[in-house]
Design a protein that fits this description.
With 236 residues, the protein is mainly alpha-helical. Helix 3 packs antiparallel against helix 8. The longest helix is centred in the first third of the chain and has 30 residues. The termini are far apart.
């Protein structure tokens, strides 16, 4: 049974890893980077302090940090060395000779489960539980899915690595969210219609004001980041 699952995992990996173009090579390499998303991460703080009183915003910020730290440490420090499954890109893995690698990138030794998937889904699940606006949930979950898929595209993870990592991250994100709500007086503080902010139009189109939801700023920053990545993939 285990061998059958491993063979299926390898076949699915080879199918998706083989779908490459020069543009997607550049796009996925940039998308998977950690630092390129710093502006979006910083916007999370803005959302929290815009929607909650400072003491609660600080608790939520600490909860998010712990969520990602737990997901990362469980996968990287405990599960990976214990399971010891080589990445498909690892030079000692026979599958590496059939893998398409981008710029020689191979990652570390072990890849099960995926820390990228765990961290992304831990953050996305926590925020999706907290800010229950449909387009925000669609945005943050799409970001987590694409961030995870980039690891398969780059050849450093099997689909099973991503699936297990995403599951672990989602469970941790949900658990930390529930614990945080209990800490904050036991009542659910859910942002279903987060507060607006007023921004003046820059252009001389009108003298009115532009009302935006606080969470829309994160969607906007994320969209701008994606556009920057697309520009870099074309001309970088």
């Amino acid at each position: 049974m285990l061998e059958t699952l491993q063979n299926l995992d390898s076949q699915i990996y080879l199918f998706f890893n083989g779908m490459h173009t020069p543009f997607l090579d550049n796009f996925m390499m940039m998308f998977t980077g950690r630092f390129i998303w710093v502006p979006m991460y910083a916007t999370i703080l803005f959302i929290l302090f815009k929607n909650f009183k400072p003491s609660h915003a600080i608790v939520y910020t600490m909860a998010i940090v712990l969520t990602i730290a737990f997901a990362d440490q469980i996968c990287a420090t405990y599960m990976r060395p214990f399971i010891g499954r080589l990445r498909p890109s690892h030079i000692d893995n026979p599958l590496s000779q059939f893998s398409h690698l981008v710029n020689g990138y191979r990652g570390g030794n072990y890849g099960f489960p995926s820390c990228h998937a765990a961290n992304s889904f831990a953050l996305a699940t926590f925020l999706a539980m907290l800010i229950r606006r449909r387009r925000f949930v669609v945005f943050i979950m799409s970001w987590a899915i694409l961030n995870s898929y980039s690891r398969l595209y780059l050849g450093v993870h099997y689909p099973g690595d991503l699936l297990v990592g995403a599951t672990i991250g989602s469970l941790i994100g949900y658990a930390v969210y529930i614990i945080t709500q209990r800490i904050l007086s036991g009542h659910h503080h859910i942002v279903t219609d987060d507060r607006t902010m007023k921004l003046p139009f820059v252009a001389n189109i009108t003298d009115g004001i532009l009302n935006l939801r606080a969470s829309d700023t994160m969607i906007g920053i994320g969209a701008v980041t994606v556009l920057f990545i697309i520009w870099g993939a074309f001309f970088g």
